[in-house]
User: What shape does this take?
Amino acid sequence: MEETFLFIIEVIGTFAFAISGIRLAAFKSFDWFGAYTVGLVTAIGGGTLRDVLLDIPVFWMQTWMYLAVTAASLAVVIMFRKLLVSKDRMLFLFDTLGLALFVVIGIQKTLAAGYPMWVAIVMGLITGSSSARIYMPRPAPQAAWPTGAPRRQGCRRCRRSSSALSPS
Assistant: This one.
């Protein structure tokens, strides 16, 4: 029963952090593949670091489900783009939900691996807060640019360019 509950928390946290990353990518006009990549790295980055540090099998390499949850998150952002990409509160909601759930998962997995509580607290923080989304789309990689849109910080034309995630 406890394992099922933790699995559900992990899926919801993955969904929330993936939406958070995909939303950021959509705001920066990434294409679908770029948005999926940012969402996936956001969703699995902290847990990957945790599992490597704990020397346990990396969670997302055990099942394809995390890739599918990220794909579902991409579909949700595409369908509800106007609501999700334009509201700062929505980003705050998904970041908060993902952070809370992943801290719980990080602490639980660390304790299950036999480490003391102080290590579990640190690993909970690493799992929840070391999302690679913070580091990823600083300037957008050239491969993620919309076709024909030059991208430079401060370029007014770039800020007005439409996102590949918006329905045409």
Q: What stands out?
A: Confidence is low (pLDDT under 50) at residues 140-145, 152-161. Helices lie at 2-27, 32-54, 65-79, 81-86, 88-112, 117-129, 156-160. The chain has seven helices and no strands.
